[in-house]
Amino acid sequence: MMISEQLKSIIRDGEGLTVEFKECRTQINRDVYETVCAFLNRNGGHIVLGVDDNGNITGIDADALPQIKKDLVTALNNPQIINPPLYILPETVNIEGKILLYLNIPESSQVHRCKGKIFDRNEDGDLDVTNHPDAVAHLYIRKQSSFSENRIYPYVRLEDLRTDLIQRVRKMVRAENPNHPWATMNDEELLSSARLYQHDYQTGKEGYTLAAILLLGKDEVIQSVLPHFKTDAILRRVNLDRYDDRDDIRTNLIESYDRLMAFVAKHLPDPFYLEKDQRISLRDHIFREVVTNMLIHREYINGFPAKFIIGTDQVVAENANRPHGHGRINPSNFTPYPKNPVIARFFKEIGRADELGSGVRNLYNYTRIYSGGADPQLLEGDIFKIIVPVTPQATPQATPQAENDKISALLEYCIEPRSREEIQEFMGLKDRKHFRLEILNPLIQEGKLFLTIPNKPNSPNQKYYSHLKDPNHV
User: I want to staple 49 with a disulfide (CB 3.0 to 4.6 A). Which of 101, 187, 295, 354 is the partner?
Assistant: First the structure.
C-alpha cells in the first residue's frame, strides 16, 4: 500500500521516465492508457491521477471517484484497450485534504498495445512506435531475451496442467480479494489473464508458456520440459558430509512453496514475538520471503539446482540467476528488478509475495530481531544467494520490557485453564524441559499460575490458570 509520504516524495521529484501525472478531476484522460502501455513495455512506473504536469496537487472530485476507479479497472481488463490486458487495482490516497489515485505499473514480460498501437517510454513521455519496425523489433527482443518464463510450448495442452491447482488458485485470489476477476473466469480465461497463454507475433507461436508449466503443470510435464528442475531442501547440523534430513522437491511452484515452508516449520524455531500487541511468526515472515525469492526470481533455463540448506548457525538459499549487478545488496539503496514478472505477479495475486522490493526490507527488519541483531546477506551474481543467520541462543525480545510482555500475554492466555502442551505451543517453544524449568515452574512459585489439581501436580489431566481468574471459578 502506498503511504502518503512516499507518494509526496514521488510528486516532489516530478515527472520522468517512470513517473507520470494526470489531472483527471472528473474523468479519465484518454492518454492515461497510452502511459500504462508505455510503462508496461519499458521499465514500469508510477501514475498519479489528481496532479497536474507541474506537480501541483489538484485532486479528484469525490463524486467522480467511484466511476473513475470502475472505468480504470474495466478498461485495463479490456483487450481492445490494453492488449494483453492488465489486472491492477488503483489505490486511493489522501494528501493535503485532496483525493489522488495511484497506479503502480509493473514492467511486463510481453509487448503490449493500446488500442492497436505500441507505445514505448523515454524521458520526454510516451512514444508511438507502431510504424517504426526497428523500435518494435527491439522491444520484442528485449522482452524475449530477458524473461525465459515466456518461452512458448505449442504442444502443451490444458490437460497437461492440473485443474485442481487452477481451482485452488481461484480460492486463494478470492481470499485476497473477494471481487478478484480470476474467481469467476473459466480455466482458459484465467490462464490468458495471468499471461500464461501467449502469442508470439514474431515467430507465430501460440500456446502455454514455461511459466504456466512451472506454476500449474503436472509433475511429468515439468520434468519433460526441464529435466534438471528441482529444489533441494537439506538439514545439515550433525552429519555435515551428507545431511540429517532432506526433501528433493520436483513439483509445481505452488506446492514447492508449501513443502519448503513445511521443511522450515519442521526444523527452525519460532520464538515468541509481539508486534503491536499481536503475536506474529518471525520465522514465517522471514522464510516466506526467502522461499518466495527462490521460486519467483530463479533463472529456470539454467541447470543449477536450487538449494535450501539449514545449518547449525545459518540458513543458505541459492538459485540460478540472471544478475543485474554483482556483490552484496544494500537494502537502503538497491533497485529491485523483476526476474520473472509473470510468475512474480501470479504469486502476488495469490497472496504469496509482496510488492517488488518491500519483501527485502521486511527480511532485513525481521532477521535482525530473529537473529539477535545480525543482518541477512543477499548476494547478487550468476548464483543468487541469501544467508540468514540463525543463533540457537537468540531471544528476539530479550529486554526486560519484552519479557514482561511475553509473560503478560501468557497470563492473559491462561485466564481459561490450559494444559502444559497448549501453553508451550502458545509460547512457540519445543523444549519441554526448558519450558518447565525456566517458565512454568517459576510462574507457579511466584504465584502467577495455579494448578487446577493442586493435590496431584503430575496428573495427566493437570491444567494451569492465571491469577487473573478467580480460583473458585475453576
Answer: 101
CA distance 42 to 51: 22
- The closest alpha carbon to 385, from 298, 312, 458, 264, belongs to 298
Read off the C-alpha cell for 94. Answer: 489522501
Do 440 and 368 lie in one domain? The reply is no
* 404-441 exposure pattern, b = at least 16 Cβ within 10 A, e = fewer: ebbbebbbeebeebbeeeebbeebbbeeeeebeeebbe
Query: How far apart are the C-alpha atoms of 409 and 403, rounded to whole Å?
Result: 10
Is the separation of the CB atoms in 397 and 406 below 8 Å? yes
Helix (H, G, I), strand (E, B) or coil at 404: helix
**184 and 71, same structural domain?**
no
Q: What is the total count of domains within the chain?
A: 4
Domain that holds residue 56: 1-146
What residues does 418 pair with on adjacent strands? 464
pTM score: 0.60
| DSSP calls for 246-295 | EEEE-S-HHHHHHHHHHHHHHHS-----EETTEE--HHHHHHHHHHHHHH
Q: What DSSP character marks residue 427?
A: H
- Residues making up the chain, counted from first to last: 474
Same domain, 413 and 458: yes
Q: How many CB atoms lie within 10 A of CB 447?
A: 8
pLDDT in tens, 55-79: 999 999 999 999 999 999 899 888 8
Where does a domain end: 146, 175, 191? 146
**β-bridge pairing 119-122 and 125-128:** antiparallel
d(CA 377, CA 196): 33
Cα gap 200→206, rounded to integer Å: 6
Cα-flanking dihedrals φ and ψ of residue 22, to 5°? Answer: -140, 140
Task: Identify the H or E element spanning 420.
Answer: helix 420-427
pLDDT tens digits along 72-118 = 989 988 889 998 887 778 889 999 899 999 998 888 777 889 999 99
Distance between alpha carbon 403 and the CA centroid of its chain, in Å? 31
Phi and psi torsions of 300, nearest 5°: -80, -20
Q: 338 with 344: CB under 8 angstroms?
A: yes
Q: Which DSSP letter does residue 108 get?
A: P
